[in-house]
UniProtKB/TrEMBL annotation:
This is COBRA-like protein. Residues 231-426 form the COBRA C-terminal domain. It comes from Coffea arabica. Pfam families: COB_C, COBRA. GO terms for cellular component: plasma membrane; side of membrane. PANTHER family: COBRA-LIKE PROTEIN 4, PROTEIN COBRA.
Length: 458
């Protein structure tokens, strides 16, 4: 009996060790992949540091911030880029950008540098910046478009003249500890890497020049680091069901767990928001969302409505509602994953481009507004929404059963939206079939359309 007990204790100890080791490996794997996006596995923001010429005590460099993320962009008030100098470098002058602080330059008796801080932070210039301070791809207020949505504006550049840095590739040292804020946390930057010198084409594209030295830094995004709570949610409805599935309660917060409405966090109407803005302007001027009081407390809600059913097609209506009284979402975008996007026929009032992360499987779509029409999602209120409709052709796997007509995943501006539980999805009426669902859809059509369908049917 004693031997049996010792054996079991030993086995239990070994099992405990194995479980602990497995848990440790799981934690390590999650911590290393929390920035991984399955729909954009190679998406990142790349910072290139190109030394273009040497000066008497340093060099002139061009910094480029390239957004290679397919659907995640940087909104106002824009990016902030920081780093730590390897030695005692200073920035004598800049074009296309500026540091937020000059630092202590008291030891300089003649010309005063633009920045003397050991850890400078640079921001983009505004569009109204003087011509003498500008350069190519600058002065957009730090706003960067996503690579798919607007690749021409997915690049930002500025130039700096660096002093006390060495005057050759043997004495100069690369900066380290890069940080990228857009406008809050979320991005983690890797180490500075030496790369092959960048090459540039002249405006006439007949000559290629080359940087003297080039460094590169890659920054990846993590939604968890950017926001501990979700920022958007999804609600569902369908023509064949009277049930409207709202966003899950307390998705982005609960009303009883936030400060009073006067604190500028949750307000019931535009008038109450304006009253709180006058009462506490410091709160209203911050970038913390002030959302309309709802059961879900999310700044953004995406509603997917299965609108109509035809003989060979079916139609969906998408509505994006902004519940944030303090935010205009410029150049917003939506990424939707659904197996029928391979048969998408037409989109109304939204731009569309497929995103194919898994080889030939076309089940993911990127949608965004039409420029100067609905590319701005206005603040909460009567105009705080945009909507469009999608027309799909029915594929071989088409069905209204078991929630197939609803999306598998939705992103808004690159952040995953919370979906309702699958067991709450609108269901077909009891005993219904696809034929009855088709009849229900036909009954919702106008009489003229109904006659056209019946007379044109084979």
């Amino acid at each position: 009996m004693e031997l049996f007990i010792k054996f079991n204790i030993g086995s239990f100890t070994e099992l405990s060790c194995r479980i602990s080791l497995l848990a440790l490996l799981c934690v390590m794997s999650f911590s290393s992949t929390d920035a991984y996006d399955a729909l954009d596995p190679s998406g990142n923001i790349t910072i290139k540091w190109d030394i273009m010429s040497w000066t008497s005590d340093g060099y002139i460099a061009t910094l480029s911030i390239l957004n290679f993320q397919k659907y995640r962009h940087i909104e106002a008030p824009g990016w902030k880029l920081g780093w730590t100098w390897a030695k005692s470098e200073v920035i004598w002058s800049m074009l296309g950008g500026q540091t937020v602080e000059q630092g202590d330059c008291s030891k300089f008796k003649g010309d005063i540098p633009h920045c003397c801080k050991k850890k400078p932070t640079v921001v983009d210039l505004l569009p109204a910046a003087p011509y003498t301070q500008r350069m190519a791809n600058c002065c957009r207020g730090g706003v960067l478009s996503s690579w798919v949505q607007d690749p021409a504006n997915a690049l930002s550049s500025f130039q700096l003249t660096v002093g006390q840095a060495g005057t050759s590739n043997k004495t100069v040292r690369a900066p380290k500890d890069f940080t990228l804020k857009t406008p809050g946390p979320g991005y983690t930057c890797g180490p500075t890497q030496f790369v092959k010198p960048s090459k540039f084409k002249t405006p006439d594209r007949r000559r290629v020049t080359q940087a003297l030295m080039s460094w590169q830094v890659s920054c990846t995004y993590s939604q968890f680091l950017a926001q501990k709570t979700p920022t958007c949610c999804v609600s569902l409805s369908s023509f064949y069901s009277e049930t409207i599935v709202n966003c899950p309660a307390c998705t982005c917060g609960c009303q009883n767990k936030v400060p009073r409405p006067a604190a500028g966090t949750c307000v019931g109407s535009v008038s109450s928001y304006l009253a709180s803005a006058l009462a506490i302007p410091s709160k209203i001027n911050s970038y913390t969302p002030v959302v309309h009081c709802t059961s879900h407390m999310c700044p953004i809600r995406v509603h997917w409505h299965v609108k109509q059913n035809y003989k060979e097609y079916w139609r969906v209506k998408i509505t994006i509602t902004n519940f944030n009284y303090k935010m205009n979402y410029t150049q917003w975008n939506l990424v939707v994953q659904h197996p029928n996007f391979n048969h998408l026929t037409e989109t109304f009032s939204f731009n569309y481009k497929p995103i194919i992360p898994y080889g030939l499987i076309n089940d993911t779509a990127m949608l965004w507004g039409i420029k100067y029409y609905n590319d701005w999602l206005m603040q909460a209120g009567p105009d705080g929404f945009v909507q469009s409709e999608l027309l799909f052709r029915k594929g071989k796997s088409f069905t209204f059963d078991k929630g197939w007509a609803f999306p598998q995943r939705i992103y808004f501006n690159g952040d995953v939206c919370v979906m309702p539980p699958p067991d709450q999805y609108p269901n077909l009426p009891n005993g219904s079939s696809s034929g009855i669902a088709s009849l229900l859809g036909l009954l919702k059509l106008p009489i003229l359309s109904l006659l056209l369908i019946f007379f044109s049917a084979p």
